[in-house]
Every structure is written in C-alpha cells, then in structure tokens.
Specification:
heterotetramer, A alpha+beta (386), B alpha/beta (339), C alpha/beta (348), D mainly alpha (330), A: MetI-like fold, D: 330 residues, mainly alpha, MetI-like fold, two-stranded antiparallel ribbon, 78% helix
C-alpha cells in the first residue's frame, strides 16, 4: 500500500503581507495604490518586466535615432545578408575599438547562391551617434543622428541581418514595435469601453437588461473565434492606408474580447453591490451616481488594471498572428507580424534564420506583460489577507 | 395617527420579504423563499428591542427591510419622523426616503465588509455629513474627530485607513458612522457576533452608553441570547420568517410562553458548572422557508403539539399586556425559562 | 472501565511558525494532561493557539509551523479483562509527521472533529465514502463490512435515515447533520481520544444543544476521552471536567471546571469570566470589559503577554516571564502573583 | 437532468439557425465574390477574361442571385446533406472536408493526449513542491509557452530539427505519398512525420493547462477537507490523489467538450507554417479567396461543434461535480 511520500501540503503558507510586515503610521495612512505598489515591488519578475517594457516602449517611440536606417531603406546587392559581426580586435589581435570589416559579394558557381565574405583588408570603425539618413524625431524635430553608423563609404551595419530586399532587419524591428506594442492599447481601450459599459449596465441594473446582455454575450461566445477573425480581417480592404487598417485590426481584436470582460465586470459588480459598506452608503443617503463612482468603481480599478495588463499581450499576439497570415497590417507598413511573414516557410528560415528575430521581441514583450499581470494580481487586493 | 402610539418610534405591520427561486435557463420563478412572512412589531422610543432567532429565520432580512435597505415585498413600516410625524417608509419616493432615513441608521455584523477599504476614517465617518449636509473642510474634520472620540477612538486616526484597525476598533468606526447624522433609531445587525469575547463587552458597553447619552432607540438583531438579555428591554423571537413571541425581556426569559422560545432559552450553554442542566433538546431540523410545514411551522419539532397545530396556523396575539405569542396552547402550557 | 489513567501528557509544548514577517509563537508553553475517558476543555480567544495545540498532537500543523520543544506523551493501554494496563508510552512530538507510525494513530487512536463541517468534508465524495475510508485504512475489513460499520456508527450519532444519508453528499445535509457525519467519521475506529475543535461554533444554539448531548452520550457509551476546544465558556462549563485557559499561545491556567469558574486565579481568566454577558443575569448590568485588544501576533508584549491589559499588572510583569505555578493541588496558573508560592516549579 | 438536457437541445435550434446566418455573413463580409477574386488573379497573370464567360460562370454558381436566395439555397442543400461545391477545388465541399478530416483528427487528438499527459503530472508536482526548483522551471516553461505564438514555436522547433538532422519537415507526407490515395504505406509514412506537429501543437496547450491546473490545485491544497483527510491517517500520496487532485481536475475534464471545435480547427497557423493537409489552413484559404460554400460550411460545422461541445461540457460538469448535479435536479 505504501507509495513514495510526497511532502506535506497543508494549508498554504500565508502569503507575506506588507500590512503585518511593516507597521507604523505610514502604513496605516497608506492608500490602496500605495499598498498595491508596496506589494507589487516585492514581485521581482514583475519589477524586471516593468524595466524591460519601459525600455521597449522608449525604443519604439524613439525608433529613429536608435534605428540605423529608415524602415524601407534598401541596400541593393546586399540582400539576405547575415547579421554583421562587430569586432574589436583585428587579425593580428590588436585592439581597434568596435569596427566592422568590408563586405565582399560573391556567387557560388555551383549553387548560384550569393554569399558574403568579410574583406579583412578594409576596416571601418563604428561611430556612435553618427550622422545618418535624416528623419524627424517624434515626427516633429528634424535630425539626422543615428545610434551607430560607419563612414559613408563603408558597408552598412546589419545588426540583425537584412531581408530579401536588402533592408536592415534591426531598424525594421524597431519601427515595427510601434504598431505591435501600441496596437494593444487601442484594442484594450475598445474592449474595456464595451466590456465595462455593457457589463456595468447589466450588473448595476440587473433584471431584464442583464438577461438580454448576458444572452448576447453567450451567443457571441459560441461563434467560432478564429474564422470570425479571419472573415473580418479578410473584409478589410488591402488598399486602405496604414492608420485605417490599424484601427480596423484594433476593432477586430477587441470584438472577441469584450464579452468575457463584460461578464467579469458584471460578476464583480454584483458581488460588490452586496458588500455591507455599499448598503450602509445607501442607508445614509448616497445616490446611485455617487455609489457608482465613489464606492463601486474605485474598488474595481485594481481589478481592471490586472485585466488590462493581461489583455495587452493577447492583442499583441493577435496582431502578430493576423499580420503573419497576411490579414493584418499590410506592407509597406512594418509590424512584428509583417516582419515574421518573411519567415513563413521553413525553407526561408533555413537560409535566413535571422528573420525569426522579431519573433523573440514578440515573446519577450508578451512574457513581460504576463509577469506584470502576475505581480499585479498578487497586489491587486491588498486588503484580502489582513 | 392614533394617540397611543405617541411613545412609539417604529411600528411594522405584516412585513413580508419573498425571494423568488428561479430555475432553468429561462429563469422561471418556481417558488418563493419566504424569508420574512408577515412580521408585525413595534419599538418604543429610547428602548432596545432584541430580535432573536436562529440563522435563516429572517431576523437580519427584517432589520434591513425596515430600513428599506432591501426592498420589502409587502407590509407597512411606520416611523415617527421627528420633523414630520408618522410616515410609511414603504410609500416614500427616493428623496423623501433619504431625508427620513437620516434618522435611521445601521451597524453591521462584519467589521471588514462594512467599511470601504479605500476610504480614510475621515471619509468613512464623514460621508453621511458630506452627502446630507454638505459639510466640508475643517468643520467636517472637527465633527468627525468628535464622533471618533465619542466611540472611544483617538481623533488623530482621521487619516488612517480601516486596514490599520482591529475588529473591535473597526466596529467602533461603524458605530461612529451610524451616529454621524444624529439618528434616532439604529438597526444593530449582530454587532458583536464577529468579535472576540474580550472585545464584545467593550462594544456592548459602548452601545449602551451611547443609548443613554444620545437617547437612541435600537433594534438589536442577534442570535446570542445572553447578549440580548443583557442589552434588550424587550425581545422578539422569530422562527422561519414569523414572529413567535414578543414581550418584556424580564418576562420572557424566566417565563417563555412559546415552546420554541423555551427550547431556545434553555439550549444556551451557561458559563456555570453548577447551573441546572435542565434543557429542552429539540428533535429534527429547522423548517425550510421555501417549503414550510402546515399549520404552525414549529409543530413537527414541538413536544406539546396537538392536531390543531398541524391544521391551523396560529396568530400572534397579546396574552398579557405587552406580551404577544403565536401559539394555540400559549395559555395552558407551563414552560421552563432561565432565571 | 474509566479510571484516573493518564492518556495524554502535554509538557512544555512550543509550536512556532517562522513566517516572512517574523516568528509566530502560536503555542508557546502548553502543559496539561488528558485522562482516559474524561473531557478536557481548552478555552481561549481567536489566535490563542488552541487549534494549533490540537494540530500539534496529531502532527498536522500546516507548514512552515513545527513543534520546537516539548513532549506529547501518548499512553497506550491494553485491555485485560475489565482492567486496563499500561502498554507503552509514545512521544508524538518525536514522530515523523509523515511517517507510518503517526498515521496509524491518526484517525484510529486519536481522531479529530473540525469546526466547519461544510468545508471540512470533501464536497465531491459521499458521506459513506468519507466514513468508510478511515475504517478501511485502519481495520482489516471488506468494503461491505466497512459500509455496515459506517451505517452502524451513523445510526449511533443519530443521523436521520442512515441508509439514505450514507450516500448523500455533504451539501445535501443540514449543518447539524453534517456535524453528526463528521463525528461519525471521527468515531468510526473507536479512538481513545477525540479532539473536537470548536465543533459547535458554526451551529445554531438548538443544534448545538443536540450535538453537545450527542457527544456526552457517545462518551458514556464508548469511553473515549475528549479534548474540547472552544471559545465559549458556557460550552466548557457543560462539557468538561477540567479545563485549561489559553492566551497568546500560553496555557495561563488549569484546574477542574468548578474551581476554574468559582476560584479562578489568573487575572485573564478572572477578567474573561467577568466580561461575558450571562443569560441568567439581571438585565442592564454593566459588563466589566477587558481593556485594550488582543495584540498582534508578530508584535507580542514582553514578559507576561497579558500585562498591558491586566488590572493586577506590576512593573515586573513587563520583563519577567511568569512562572507556571501550582497554586493549589491540581490548580495551576502562569502568573507572577503566585511566584512565591511554595509549590512553584520552574517549567516554561 | 434529462429535462435539463432536453431544454438545452430545444434552445439549440434557434441558436444554430442564428449561427448559420452568422457563418454565411462572415463569408460575405469581404467585398466582391469568388469570381472577382479569381478574375483579379487571372488579370494579374496577364490573361484576358471573357465577359460572357464570367456571366456564364456567375449564373452557374448562382452568384447572380441575391444573398438571401443564395443563403436559402445553401441551407436547403444542407438539409439534403449537400453542402454545396467548392469553387477552388472544383469538388463538393464534403469531399474536400472528408479528404482532410482523418489527418486533422489524428493530429488534433494526439496533440490533446500529449497536452494532458504532460501538463497534468507537471502541474501536480509543481503545486505540491511549490517554490521548489522544479516548480520554478515549470513556471518559467509555462510562461514562455504562453508567450510564444504557436507558429513561431513551429518555426523554431522545425528549424532546430533541421539544424540537427538536416531533414526538413515541410509536409506530413514524404514526396511519393503526397498525392497518392490513402493506403497503409501512406499511413505509416504519415506516422513517421506527424510527431513534430503533434509536439508543437501540444506545447502551446500544455502551458495554459499547466498554469490553470497548478493554480486550482494550490487553492485546493489549502482547503480544510484536506486536513480532515490527513487527520484520518491517509498517506500523503493517496490523500493528494483522492481529494485535491480529483477536485482540481473536475473543471478541466468537464471542459473537454469545448475542445471539440478545436479538434477541427486546431493548428491553423502551425498548419500553414508546416504545410499540413488539415482543415484549418483550408478554411483560411477559402476565406481569403471567398470560396464561400467551403468556408461557410466549415464555419457552420465549427459553430455546431462549439454549441454541442458546450452542452457536453455542461453535462460532464454536472456528472463530475455532485454539487452542480443536484443543484439542477432539485
């Protein structure tokens, strides 16, 4: 009968609570957000994620100076180049600072494939914040400083290699992060607008209204999601300008999400409505408007914040998948999804594995949002464990 | 309004609260839980009426219906408004209700759920004043500080949030909030049941002190008969949504007239090893309020039951002055109480 | 035969929880004995360590809690004719909490009834399944026999329609019936000690009366000892012969029930008895409340933990750990007031 | 219980009617129809398109009729078991679907098995040894599995496989079998190629299931009934399996019905990347080229499966959890 023992798994260890750990007036007078922050701060992965995402969003906004070239700038005869090797020591082992060798293009007579060989005789030092192609910072300030650059006569620096049209993948990835990282916000905004409004109405009014809204949601949920997405996305005309396509995709992404959120909002409202302090407020004369904005919503915000952080990665993944299929953002606009489209075939990837690099950005961004969501979930209700 | 009521503050007639039972996808109503099923009672000015019974008997629902904190299904709730005289709460529109209810407040059982965790003490206790009188700033702080002092909390705590306080202190905050509007009448809904034994006494003493100083009237809802004996002038006993007995505390405890009251009183374990162990142990279970037995709801468990008890529901009647019982055999039985 | 034979001796028990926020001394000095076939009451407010004491005896203290010090001497007897003779003594505190030895004791020789019969029973297994489980585990019986035994014990605990309720799920039963089922489960292997952790706290007063009656009846029939844990001084007065009072992890007083209620020595016991409302008492008498509140478990007062709330506190109480003193024969108190008592011993 | 199922079945009828309309509408959403797409392709290829020919085709496919008539005709056909013709494949819709169904089912079903076989034990160990190194790695793996789009996983894994072995998985079948009819040899050939897609499709599902199960299990481990069982003298392993694991698995087993549509639709993106002959990519292609009867039929079948799956889930849940069973029965 005896089997190997598993360790005791009694009542889980009480999660540490800042309320018992720190004492003193500053804790007693700390608001919900302060308590949440103190709790959140203790989640290391989430804190790292905040920093990483901060850097990613900064780079997305500041893509121009940090990119080496423009998003559509082509280098003829330098198609499908592997990532440039940055060197510090030359052949003789002498330290030369960061530099790159020249690049020699040759064609393999047997396979007729283009290969690139480093030309050790030419050394081009890398300059930081060198002058490059001009651009407008944040769309306003004309500038021409780029993060790195070589002398004008030198070969280009392809940090992530170049694609089959000879465009710099690193620069394109940076520009692409604008659409990919920010599409989440638009989608989340719409999802929340519908989710909160309809869920709120259902939960607050109850009765027939509630019934009707809930049935609509039930119906929406039984429509198969992926075909719905594909059908809707296919309906977006290919020739629309980027901005319009962007918004169309945003709307499509949020159509699927709002039902679940509305349900959750309704459930949460229904349970909050039952709290004694809400009843007390009604008894001492709080009117519906005050009840909603002063009692229900504030107790709801932390919960919504958690929902936001876990829906953004969903949006990022959605955009990537749609664009990957060719149903989302259309070239020449760049997003991580459109960049990955070039890596659709294994035969391509086998030749140019660096085309999968934008995928790493997707994974990291989504992972970081999930970490933050995890940390926020732990911190969202600082009163639960008193 | 009739004159003999001039010392009464509240009179409830035939109060009912039915919760529909909904089944199936179409949510059809298939029956009702009769949580409160025709309760009539009154509370005199300056007294405490204890409303007792076991869980699910409808005592808390009654207390909340009286304030219209939840909407009653039927009945009359007459309140002697100090400004306008008798009003029926059931007939008031929202704005009138809000005005009248300034005189009627509530204290809850759960010291955690009853305080909004996102508000400081100043906001928590001050809200009623802000909403009803528009008091703000220094005046509000002074008034809240004064209220905190009156419930035994230090006024320096104004900026603290409820998480800084223990259960007993939170209950004091709840009391301060109920007092903010200078009410005449407070529904105390099991205010000490969630507290530790050593803190219970503090809150009970506080409630009595406030009653004496501020001339308050309490409806004290509780399941703990010892606590009720200690605080209530009169007691009303409920069983499955109905009132079975009501009268002076000093009369009912030693001499109950309803068999259920007798069982309830004697069942309480006494903190005295030498006390008599005479007790009535009831058989069976409390009746289901969705599907109650015929006649007197208590008859299946009653050891004095006779055929009439199964056939006819008894009515609440006054057997001696101020002592109401709903039992067919109230006059003939001699029951044990607690002395 | 029920005699004055010691069944369990608890000596200087200390069970601590090393949490991130600090060390919680959940039980910090508990000394008492349980006699065979008798009832010991353990009374105290929430957080006083009474439940952890019970968990320590069964070695089911949730991690990271662990017994640090102390002995839990469990006396086993073998029955020869009408008399019991001591078979062996085992120190439960020294057993591996996951080992085979403690598991043959749990549910078999020492069983436990919990406070909340709803959450303490598995919602997706029938009552019968949960009762026969213990029987099958500790006794060599077939499933059919175990079911018979379960029916028999359900009958004994006054469960209405046992042949029906045995196949019911806990949520189909009322609170009182669930607690009867829980008691049936605990008694299914005829333990010599039943630990009842607030078994009636979640119940209504008339149901509580039924369960208390039942437990007394069963004790008479089966002869087991009961360790009855509750915060209700009334329940202790009715159920127990001797009782211990706990405050913040420490047993502060121990005596037979009559002495405890009429001649309490520890200021906490005295204050507690004065502060409770009594159903028989004159209406409108003011209660003598204990001042202050139960301190935060991470931030215990130094010296005697009760000193900030104690009416008899002296300067020393702040610094000195009060001694465990036998103030009268079989009447112990942990208070500096009795430190010069001739029978004083230095335990804990 | 029976009346509960009967009621659900009755409600399903109008729901399915609505779903069929929605399915049809989804395909009508993109502007134009199959022929316009087709003509564009031809013109892009430099071919001249004959007006008369187009009119003839339009009439032949019934595209000249109003949308309502098209819908009603299509529905009428479905009741006779005829789902219409696929423009692209020039074959009855059913034939196109049935051709792909076996592979689809084998692939989806095996990857589901992989998901459960991998996720359940990992989740249990991870919850029981919470905060251990094992738990840490399982959690990390789970997070990454959730963060990586499945097509990317497919790419990376098959690329790594290529780097290691030099073999490129680009189809479920080796060359000689690509267009061959089904045979034992073709089946054996498929088995030797199918494991990689199964692992890839399974991995994404594993991460999600693992995270949910671990969380539920942690919840259950702290419940009072676990302590009760321990106090009875049960060994830790038996206790774990009989109580918390059983209860934590309930919601997971009961949602098996929801997987029904996924069986058909699973792995669209993986299917495209790895060039798998399954239904998902066919649907995608049909949607893009407006092959309306094929796309509409697949969407309709998926909708029906979703509704039926939900019903099965509800029944399973009631069967597994007596609380729900009795709640409905009273």
């Amino acid at each position: 009968m005896e089997t190997t023992e598993t360790p005791t798994s009694g009542p889980a260890k009480p999660e540490s609570s800042i309320l018992t750990e720190e004492t003193g007036e500053h804790v007693y007078t700390a608001s919900q957000w302060q308590l949440m922050w103190w709790q959140f701060r203790k989640h290391k992965a989430a804190m790292i994620a905040v920093v990483v995402l901060g850097v990613m969003y900064f780079l997305a906004l500041m893509a121009e100076p940090f990119a080496v070239y423009g998003p559509t700038q082509r280098f003829p005869r330098l198609e499908s180049t592997a990532p440039t090797r940055i060197r510090f020591f030359d052949e003789t082992g002498q330290f030369r600072g960061p530099f790159i060798y020249g690049l020699e293009r040759s064609i393999d007579p047997e396979t007729i494939r283009v290969t690139f060989v480093e030309d050790m005789s030419k050394i081009y030092p890398i300059r930081f914040f060198a002058e490059g192609t001009p651009y407008k910072l944040l769309g306003l300030f004309p500038m021409n400083l780029r993060l790195v650059g070589t002398d004008p006569d030198g070969p280009p620096i392809f940090l992530f290699g170049s694609d089959r049209l000879g465009r710099d993948l690193y620069s394109r990835t940076l520009y692409g992060s604008r659409i990919s990282l920010f599409i989440g916000f638009g989608g989340v905004f719409l999802t929340f607008f519908f989710g909160i409004t309809l869920g709120g109405i259902a939960g607050y009014l109850g009765g027939t209204v509630d019934e009707v809204i809930m049935r609509i949601i039930d119906f929406m949920v039984s429509i198969p999601q992926i075909p719905l997405w594909m059908g809707l996305a296919a309906a977006v005309p290919r020739d629309w300008p980027v901005i319009r396509t962007y918004f169309a995709i945003t709307i499509i992404l949020s159509i699927v999400g709002w039902g679940g959120l509305a349900r959750a909002v309704r459930g949460k409202l229904l349970s909050l409505r039952e709290e004694d302090y809400v009843m007390a407020a009604r008894v001492y004369g709080a009117r519906p408007r005050r009840l909603i904005f002063k009692y229900l919503l504030p107790n709801f915000m932390s919960y919504l914040l958690v929902s936001v952080t876990i829906s953004i990665p969903f949006m990022i993944l959605g955009e990537t998948a749609l664009s990957f299929l060719g149903l989302g953002i259309q070239p020449p606009a760049v997003s991580w999804g459109t960049l990955l489209r070039d890596a659709q075939q294994l035969t391509v990837v086998a030749q140019r594995p660096w085309q999968m690099i934008p995928g790493a950005f997707v994974v990291v961004a989504v992972l970081m949002f999930n970490f933050i969501g995890d940390g926020l979930r732990d911190a969202a209700d600082p009163y639960a464990r008193i | 309004m009739p004159e003999q009521k001039n010392q009464r503050l509240l009179e409830v007639n035939d109060l009912k609260k039915y919760f529909p039972i909904k089944r199936g996808l179409l949510k059809r109503t298939v029956g009702h839980v009769k949580a409160v099923d025709g309760v009539s009672l009154y509370v005199n000015e300056g007294e405490t009426l204890g409303l007792v019974g076991e869980s699910g008997c409808g005592k808390t629902t009654s207390g909340r219906c009286i304030l219209r904190a939840i909407e009653p299904t039927d009945g009359e709730i007459l309140f002697n408004d100090p400004d306008t005289g008798w009003v029926n709460l059931r007939e008031l529109e929202q704005e009138d209700l809000i005005r009248v209810r300034q005189h009627m407040q509530i204290i809850f059982q759960d010291p955690y759920s009853s305080l909004n965790p996102r508000m400081t003490l100043l906001q928590l206790v001050g809200e009623p004043l802000v909403i009803n009188h528009g008091i703000r700033g220094k005046a509000l702080e002074d008034r809240v500080a004064e209220l905190l002092k009156s419930v035994g909390l230090r006024p320096e705590y104004l900026r603290r949030y409820p998480h800084a306080f223990s259960g007993g202190q939170r209950q004091r905050i709840g009391v301060a909030r109920a007092l903010a509007l200078n009410p005449r009448f407070i529904v105390c809904d099991e205010p000490v049941s969630a507290l530790d034994v050593s803190v219970q006494a503090q809150i009970l003493n506080l409630l009595r002190e406030l009653q004496e100083n501020l001339d308050l009237t309490y409806l004290f809802v509780a399941h703990d008969l010892s606590v009720v004996r200690h605080i209530a002038d009169r007691v009303a006993v409920m069983y499955v949504g109905k009132l079975v007995e009501m009268g002076e505390t000093d009369e009912i405890y030693p001499g109950p007239r309803h068999p259920y009251t007798e069982a309830l009183m004697t069942a309480v374990p006494r903190p005295d090893p030498r006390a008599s162990k005479d007790r009535i142990v009831l058989e069976g279970e409390v009746a289901d309020p969705a599907n109650p037995p015929s006649g007197c709801y208590f008859h299946p468990r009653c050891r004095y039951a006779e055929p009439i008890c199964a056939a006819e529901p008894p009515v609440l009647r006054e057997i001696t002055e101020g002592h109401f019982v709903s039992c067919h055999r109230a006059e003939e039985l001699s029951l044990i109480g607690v002395a | 035969m029920v005699g004055n034979k010691t069944l369990l001796e608890v000596k200087g028990l200390k069970t601590y929880f090393p949490l991130d926020e600090g060390l919680v001394r959940a039980v910090d000095g508990a000394d008492f004995e349980i006699q065979q076939g008798r009832t010991l009451g353990v009374v105290g407010e929430s957080g006083c360590g009474k439940s952890v004491t019970a968990q320590s005896i069964l070695r089911i203290v949730p991690p990271p809690g662990d017994i640090l010090e102390g002995e839990l001497l469990f006396h086993r007897y073998s029955k020869e004719g009408d008399a019991f003779s001591m078979a062996d003594v085992i120190d439960l505190a020294k057993l591996d909490p996951r080992g085979r030895e403690i598991r043959t004791i749990r549910g078999n020789e020492i069983a436990m009834v919990f406070q909340e019969p709803m959450t303490s029973l598995s919602p997706v297994h029938t009552m019968g399944n949960q009762i026969t489980e213990a029987i099958l585990l500790h006794q060599e019986t077939s499933k059919a026999e175990a079911r018979e035994k379960a029916l028999d014990i359900l009958h004994r605990v006054g469960m209405p329609k046992p042949s029906q309720t045995i196949d019911s799920y806990p949520f189909e039963l009322s609170g009182g019936m669930r607690q009867r089922g829980m008691i049936a489960m605990a008694l299914s292997c005829h333990p010599s000690l039943l630990i009842a952790d607030e078994p009636t706290t979640a119940l209504d007063v008339t149901t509580e009366a039924q369960i208390l009656d039942l437990m007394r009846q069963l004790q008479e029939d089966l002869g087991m000892a009961i360790m009855f844990i509750t915060h209700d001084l009334g329940v202790i007065a009715e159920m127990a012969e001797t009782a211990v009072v706990m405050y913040l992890g420490k047993v502060v007083e121990r005596a037979d029930v009559d002495t405890l209620y009429y001649d309490a020595r520890h200021p906490y016991t005295q204050a507690l008895l004065r502060s409770i409302p009594r159903i028989t008492e004159d209406r409108r008498k003011w209660l003598e409340a204990i001042r202050g509140m139960v301190p935060d478990p991470y931030n215990l007062p130094s010296g005697c933990p009760f000193h900030p709330r104690c009416r008899s506190a002296q300067g020393e109480c702040r610094e000195v750990e009060p001694p465990w003193v036998e103030v009268e024969p079989d009447h112990w108190a942990r208070c500096i007031l009795y430190a010069d008592s001739t029978t004083a011993t230095a335990q804990g | 219980m029976i009346s509960f199922i009967a009621r659900r079945l009755v409600i399903m009828i109008p729901l399915l009617a609505l779903l069929s309309i929605v399915s049809f509408t989804i395909i009508q959403l993109p502007p134009g129809d199959y022929l316009t797409t087709y003509i564009q392709q031809l013109e892009a290829g430099g071919q001249v398109v004959d007006e008369a020919e187009i009119t003839r085709l339009r009439a032949q496919y019934g595209l000249d009729q109003s949308v309502y008539v098209q819908y009603l005709k299509w529905m009428g056909g479905i009741f006779r078991g005829d789902f219409g013709r696929s423009f692209h494949w020039q074959a009855p819709v059913m034939d196109v679907i049935m051709d792909r169904l076996p592979v689809t089912l084998i692939l989806s079903f095996s990857s589901l098995v992989v998901v459960y076989v991998v996720a359940v034990p990992i989740a249990i160990l991870s919850a029981v040894y919470q905060y251990s190194v094992f738990d840490y790695f399982a959690t990390l793996f789970g997070f990454i599995g959730l963060a990586a789009p499945d097509f990317l996983l497919a790419l990376v894994i098959s690329w790594l496989f290529y780097l290691l072995t030099g073999a490129m998985v680009t189809s479920l079948f080796s060359l000689p079998f690509r267009d061959a009819p089904w045979s034992l040899a073709k089946f054996v050939d498929m088995i030797s190629n199918v494991w990689l897609p199964i692992i890839i499709i399974g991995m994404a599902g594993t991460a999600g299931l693992m995270r949910t199960l671990r969380a539920t299990l942690l919840d259950e481990l702290g419940r009072a009934y676990v302590t009760t069982a321990r106090a009875k003298g049960l060994s830790e392993s038996r206790l774990l399996l009989k109580y918390p694991v059983r209860i934590a698995l309930n919601p997971i087993f009961s949602t098996i019905g929801w997987l029904l549509p996924a069986l058909i639709n699973g792995g669209v993106l993986v299917g495209i990347v790895l060039n798998l002959q399954i239904i998902g990519p066919a649907l995608m292609q049909a949607t893009l080229s407006q092959d309306m009867y094929l796309a509409g039929s697949i969407i309709l079948i998926l909708s029906v499966l979703t509704v039926v799956g939900t019903l099965i889930s509800d029944i399973l849940l009631a069967w597994l959890d007596p609380r729900i069973r009795y709640g409905e029965a009273n």
